[in-house]
């Protein structure tokens, strides 16, 4: 019997479209001899759809038409099995569309990559690939991960976080940032990705613009010193708390001052001068695989070792599993390397960083599925129930509620 793998993508996220690209790429690489692939598209309204045409990228240019032909489904757990059922259900006969053995969430951004969707899948009792609820949440929060990494001796930039409440008095906020960091600073929404809402400020006017922009996307923003002579190095990690290996390192080459959404996804496979575009062929957006990059990154042996080691330590410190991409920043003036962020479901699942080390995308997906099954076997051994007689003899005394009980 083949394993029924639901590839879940889309969702209410600013990176909805990137997720569609990443997921369809993955579905093209999953080994059909081993897996029955069930594509499940989640709309921005959190409706789930499957059926013919849901795994065809061209159909996403006009989503309403696609949905008319697709089958809307809901997830139902019945005993130990979880399946996708037609919704609304048929009056007669079975509405079961497919059982599901495992979920491969290929989603990016807040609401989906941040533990929300992982919690939903976990509640359904299904094994799923990638980070669990806690590590997903930590990975999405650009602040929350930093104290943990610091605690592990992993270098990160100091930062401050501010909320809408702090922003009520813009002048005071600006003065306090200036005092603490001077210029240039970088302002980021706390929990977005793909460079959305991020900008660099080199004076007061730019800082005000940067705050205004970032606060549109999040109730909380992060401010930190902006590295002026910056090199960015990315490295993926595959594994879990027991074993984890680092991929090849890449250096994304940004056209602008900061790596923009445009650079990341819309560069259509063009490589910058002297750079090799790894992974996908040119033309159209291929998700993260289309970024202009140097791969392998031009690093000394010591730098490469440091980056790969730091990436693995970051992955394990945050309790990650599956595949994640750790993005680091090198200050060219000081030679110092910092962990900037972690992407717990990286664009294109970072397959293009594994190919140079001889791991095909198909193998990477196999590894991800095996890690998910391993975690499920481990979870099955953990005791989640605790038999007690605490409810025996409890009388809540009708309208008096809890007050009437002796606890
Ligand atoms: N401290 C910093 N100094 C200089 N540039 C930065 C700094 N932090 C982020 N950047 C630039 O902004 C880009 C996006 O920031 P990042 O934290 O990676 O957010 P995202 O989750 O949107 O990718 C980075 O790829 C880098 O180009
Ligand atoms: Mg980034």
Write up this protein.
The protein has 407 residues and is an alpha+beta fold. It has helices spanning 16-29, 63-69, 116-123, 133-140, 145-151, 164-167, 170-181, 204-217, 261-265, 301-317, 351-354, 361-381; strands spanning 3-10, 35-42, 48-50, 71-78, 81-86, 96-100, 102-106, 159-163, 185-189, 199-201, 220-225, 230-239, 244-252, 293-294, 322-331, 337-343. The protein folds into three domains: 3-128, Rossmann fold (3-Layer(aba) Sandwich), CATH 3.40.50.20; 140-155 and 229-376, ATP-grasp fold, B domain (D-amino Acid Aminotransferase, Chain A, domain 1, 2-Layer Sandwich); 159-225, ATP-grasp fold, A domain (Dna Ligase, domain 1, 2-Layer Sandwich), CATH 3.30.1490. The chain has twelve helices and 16 strands. A seven-stranded mixed β-sheet has the order 6-5-4-3-2-1-7, sandwiched between helices. Strands 14-13-12-15-16 form a five-stranded antiparallel β-sheet. The longest helix is centred in the last third of the chain and has 21 residues, at 361-381. The protein is globular. It starts with a strand and ends in a 26-residue tail after the last helix.
Secondary structure elements and pairings:
Blueprint: E1 3-10, H1 16-29, E2 35-42, E3 48-50, H2 63-69, E4 71-78, E5 81-86, E6 96-100, E7 102-106, H3 116-123, H4 133-140, H5 145-151, E8 159-163, H6 164-167, H7 170-181, E9 185-189, E10 199-201, H8 204-217, E11 220-225, E12 230-239, E13 244-252, H9 261-265, E14 293-294, H10 301-317, E15 322-331, E16 337-343, H11 351-354, H12 361-381
Parallel strand pairs: 1-2, 1-7
Antiparallel strand pairs: 2-3, 3-4, 4-5, 5-6, 8-11, 9-10, 9-11, 12-13, 12-15, 13-14, 15-16
The structure holds adenosine-5'-diphosphate and magnesium ion.
Magnesium ion binds next to loops.
């Amino acid at each position: 019997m083949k394993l029924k793998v639901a590839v879940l993508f889309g969702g209410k996220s600013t990176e909805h479209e990137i997720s569609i690209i990443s997921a369809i790429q993955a579905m093209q690489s999953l080994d059909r001899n081993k897996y029955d692939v069930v594509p499940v598209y989640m709309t921005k309204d959190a409706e789930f759809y499957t059926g013919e045409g849901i795994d065809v990228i061209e159909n996403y240019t006009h989503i309403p038409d696609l949905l008319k032909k697709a089958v809307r489904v809901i997830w139902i757990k019945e005993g130990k099995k979880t399946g996708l059922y037609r919704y609304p259900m048929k009056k007669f006969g079975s509405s079961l569309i497919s059982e599901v053995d495992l979920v491969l969430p290929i989603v990016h951004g807040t609401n989906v990559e941040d533990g929300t969707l992982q919690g939903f899948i976990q509640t359904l009792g299904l094994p799923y690939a990638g980070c669990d609820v806690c590590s997903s949440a930590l990975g999405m929060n650009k602040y929350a991960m930093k104290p943990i990494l610091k605690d592990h001796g992993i270098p990160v930039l100091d930062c401050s976080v501010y909320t809408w409440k702090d922003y009520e008095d813009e002048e005071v906020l600006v003065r306090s940032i200036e005092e603490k960091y001077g210029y240039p600073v970088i302002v980021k929404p706390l929990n977005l990705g793909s460079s959305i809402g991020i900008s660099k400020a080199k004076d007061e006017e730019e800082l005000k613009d940067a705050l205004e922009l970032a606060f549109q996307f999040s109730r909380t923003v992060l401010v930190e010193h902006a590295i002026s002579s910056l090199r960015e190095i990315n490295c993926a990690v595959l594994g879990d708390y027991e074993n984890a290996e680092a991929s090849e390192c890449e250096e994304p080459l940004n056209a602008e001052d900061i790596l923009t959404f445009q650079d990341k996804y819309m560069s259509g496979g063009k490589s910058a001068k002297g750079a090799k575009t790894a992974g996908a062929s040119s033309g159209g957006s291929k998700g993260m695989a289309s970024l202009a990059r140097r791969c392998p990154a031009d690093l000394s042996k010591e730098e490469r070792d440091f980056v790969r080691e730091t990436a693995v330590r970051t992955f394990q410190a945050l309790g990650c599993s599956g595949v994640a991409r750790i993005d680091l920043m090198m200050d060219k003036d000081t030679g110092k390397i910092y962990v900037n962020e972690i992407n717990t479901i990286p664009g294109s699942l970072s397959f293009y960083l594994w190919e140079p080390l001889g791991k095909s995308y198909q193998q990477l997906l196999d590894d991800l599925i095996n890690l998910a099954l391993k975690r499920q076997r481990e979870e099955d051994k953990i005791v989640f129930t605790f038999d007690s007689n605490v409810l025996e003899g409890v009388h809540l005394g009708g309208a008096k509620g809890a007050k009437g009980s002796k606890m």
